[in-house]
Amino acid sequence: xxxxxxxxxxxxxxxxxxxxxxxxxxxxxxxxxxxxxxxxxxxxxxxxxxxxxxxxxxxxxxxxxxxxxxxxxxxxxxxxxxxxxxxxxxxxxxxxxxxxxxxxxxxxxxxxxxxxxxxxxxxxxxxxxxxxxxxxxxxxxxxxxxxxxxxxxxxxxxxxxxxxxxxxxxxxxxxxxxxxxxxxxxxxxxxxxxxxxxxxxxxxxxxxxxxxxxxxxxxxxxxxxxxxxxxx
Length: 232
Fold this sequence. Notes:
The protein is built from 7 helices and 8 strands. By secondary structure, the chain is an alpha/beta fold. It has one domain: 3-Layer(aba) Sandwich (Rossmann fold). An 8-stranded mixed β-sheet has the order 3-2-1-4-5-6-7-8, sandwiched between helices. Helix 1 crosses helix 7.
């Protein structure tokens, strides 16, 4: 059975991605800063044929990341990492910008580096990085793309970093599949504000799950939106 970790999985896209992966038969680790919240999600999404478990994981905390992956290693290893945790703060000063980059980009480095020893033991390891068209130079310069009409100065830059991390890791670690995914504009509470607009979270999560369940057939070093290439 495939074992998958989803970071930031207590609500929104991460929670729905974890639920769909359990439904697909994966054993899922619910990465959560608040362990109690993670345990509640794990109980809610577990099924008779596939289970979810929670692990305390703050992607901005080196000790938390190290402890989480020690636990995964001790309890069977890892096949798929979904780097979903992120924040959408409208940063207007240095400390706020550092917080955004620490979570959205440096957090990907922390979790990926900690996961690689486990992933290298898998027969079909995959890393899915949740990026955004707001970090795509192509989308930002295409008047037909919504990203070209929206200002997201620091958030967009942090997601451009996620996309470059995907390219670089794919080149540096060819035995692991690395894919960046634009999940789509989604009706969630991302950024701490309820957003009634956008498409249902179930639809967006399905695009992530399609990559996370592809195994050895997953592409690598690519940026996908609804299964199709998105320009960097």
